[in-house]
Amino acid sequence: MKIRYAFPALAAVAVLALAGCTNTTEEPKKDSTDTPAIAVDEAAVALLPAKIKDSGELTIGTDAEYPPNEYKDDNGNPAGWGVDLAEAVAGKLGLKPKWEILGFDSIIPRIQEGALNMGSSSFTDNVERQKSVDFVNFLNAGTQWAAPAGSKVDPDNACGLKVSVQSGTVQHLDELPAKSKACTDAGKKAIEILPFDGQPEVTNAVVNGAADAFSADLPVTGDAVKQLKGKLETVGEVFDAAPYGFATEKGSDTTKAVQAALQSLMDDGTYLEILTDAGIESGALTEATINAGKN
Question: PROSITE patterns, alphabetically (predicted)?
Fold first, then answer.
């Protein structure tokens, strides 16, 4: 079976036309109309809370500003390999995916409130976030920097540089503050951290010269470099490998059902097909774990 997958051929290139504009308003919910034909896994369905099963829908939150993982297609609907995988999970559960596009930082609180069943927005599973939600892990990812082609940027020697980043990510909250503190502790200039709501604005800041480099997850950085054809290059090595996970209500049966559905996708080959189509099969897992993040 061939799973629908479309790279954002225009998504990364479009950052050239941006001028720092951001969209912080919540957008309307969207019902998916092109969910792949996935065989329902009755054992996974049996784990669902009755309220979700009876509704026939899996409500999923995403930021949709992080191509190629999650982004908006030409009609404003969620697209990307992260969206494909989440919709495949819904298919295994016999549910119709119902998407809500909103700011990254508001997804976990809405899961805690019970307004969303799941978050699919390239969440890095870490110990701090595990205090609020569970994570069903689906990819090993790491951080990769990008800078203008031909630059001398070194992520291990970035004191005094301006570095753009998506707001609320581990790069924004953990990596860059730690690097900057190491600079100031050594008597050097701090890193100027430039957070933006969406990855296109992050990339645009580097392309337009407002930032010296950006830091993001490997799939995102690789796609930006590929799409911008010679304007950007990766710098330094991939580091801080950590798992991505679907966010679900802490200690819930939903977590168990999503885990079982993802494992079913792994077992029947659908999972690896989606990752291979996206070119990120090197980060594939063989087991759907829960809360595997250790940092």
Answer: PROKAR_LIPOPROTEIN
